Amino acid sequence: MKNCKTLLLILTLSFGLSSFAQYKNFEASVHLGIPSGEVEDFINIVYGLDLTYYLSNDIGGIIDLGITGGYTEFNYDTKGGLIDADDASFMKVAAAGKLNFQNNVYFNTDLGYAFGLDQVNGGLYFSPKIGYHFDSFLVHVYYTYIRNSSSGINDFDYTSVGIGFGIRL
Q1: pLDDT score for 71
Q2: What is the pLDDT of residue 155?
Q3: Which of 3, 65, 98, 105 is the most buried (most CB within 10 A)?
Q4: How does pLDDT run across 43-61, given as a tens digit for each residue?
Q5: What average pLDDT score do residues 79-100 get?
Q6: What are the chain's domains?
């Protein structure tokens, strides 16, 4: 029940922020990746959705600061036979900072908390990204780290690398 309330709160905030979005302050992106680190032997794919709202754009002409939320799922590989478990899903809430370079290249970092939605607890969430802005479209490569505070069978950290695609409104 606690996770359902958290999910409802995050979705409400995300949709509320999108209604106040001004030109190019709001970003929505999907990401697809592969696991790394401790989970690479039994996770086969990582995917999710992120929504970001920049509260202040172009500080000094190059920095954007905002908030972000999203969903990420680590899909267990049941064919490997190592672990027979459910997928690990996380709802993320974080601060977002973006450094914009010339030629539409950017570096973005999210830092916050990921709430575990399945058999895992949440923990610290960190995700740096390097990307490129087209006019209203963006593409980035990313690394995600989620510090898991669970104990037992799922007591490892969740990390992944991948690519994301999004739109800017």
Answers
A1: 97
A2: 67
A3: 98
A4: 889 999 999 999 887 777 7
A5: 80
A6: 2-168 (2.40.160.20)
CA distances from 72 to 7, 61, 151 (A): 13, 31, 20
The single-letter code of the amino acid at 93 is V
19 phi/psi in degrees, rounded to 5:
-70, -25
Q: Is 59 helix (H, G, I), strand (E, B) or coil?
A: strand
Alpha-carbon gap, residue 166 to 11, rounded angstroms: 18
Residue 154 is which amino acid?
A: N
Give the DSSP letter of residue 31.
Answer: E
pLDDT tens across 118-148, in order? 777 889 999 999 999 988 999 999 999 998 8
- The total of other beta-carbon atoms located within 10 Å of residue 91's CB is 22
Q: List the structure tokens of 130.
A: 């390097």
